[in-house]
Amino acid sequence: MSELQATVAENNIEMTEDLGILKEAFTQFTTSASELEQSYRLLKAEVGHLKQELSESQLEKERLREEAERNHRLAVVGEMASRMAHELRNPLGSIELFASLIRKELSGNPEKQQWADHLKTAVASMNYALTNLLLFTGKPQAQCRKVDLSQLIATLFPFIAHRLEQHQIICKNEIEPDHASSYPLWCDEDLMRQVLLNLMINAIDAMPRGGCLNLSAKEAPGRRQGQNRQGILVIISDTGDGIPKERIPHIFDPFFTTKKTGTGLGLSIVQNAVAAHGGSIRVESTARGTQFILHLPSQPEAR
Fold this sequence. Notes:
Blueprint: H1 3-105, H2 110-137, E1 145-148, H3 149-154, H4 157-166, E2 169-173, E3 184-187, H5 189-205, E4 211-219, E5 232-238, H6 266-276, E6 280-286, E7 289-296
Parallel strand pairs: 2-4
Antiparallel strand pairs: 1-3, 4-5, 5-7, 6-7
């Protein structure tokens, strides 16, 4: 081999080695570039996620601020409403007293006695609305004692008699003294009276074209034979058109109402008052009517 050929061969070897080094360097560069690109994508995604979290955090902060302001406004309105309710109750008591006196003086004139009865009914309706307002603005606290359910129910009929007659509604009361379903309750009598009155008025309002209001009660099943009673089930049902299925989850929400003149507080108050007794309430509704089922304690140890 000539000297020139030897030189060329040596140069070829060196070039081959250089190409190998370049190829290896290019491969490493490509790998590094790919890793950098992947890291960049991950970093970009993380930055986007952090931006989204920041945006959500700001929205949540704004929502909490608005909610705090709304709760403050409600608290102020609630305090004012509570004061007004207390102030209105005094003149209402006077009106009711004088209506009773007028009715007594008109004992020989049944027609005019009805006027006095209308006054007493109007006072009862206003007192009912004020009681609801007071219960809503304050958290119900149950002061429980033993109460006869049948006697409690009997005190409610003077408040709803005019409504029943006006809407041509028949009331079937199975909770009578000495009836098999007449059980003692362990409850706050005033709170439970308002609970039952709210449910009965709701049932009446659900039957503007007439129908039947049913009141019944039965012993809640115990867990074991011979065990103390687990409470009482009180059922208030109507034969109205029922509650649409999509509305049932919202009926206990404050201010939710389908009535033109309703406040939407009644069922919310009912739920809170029942919970204050350690009880529960559920609703079953079809196109043939609605029933509210209260599970209430019958004695202290059942709570």
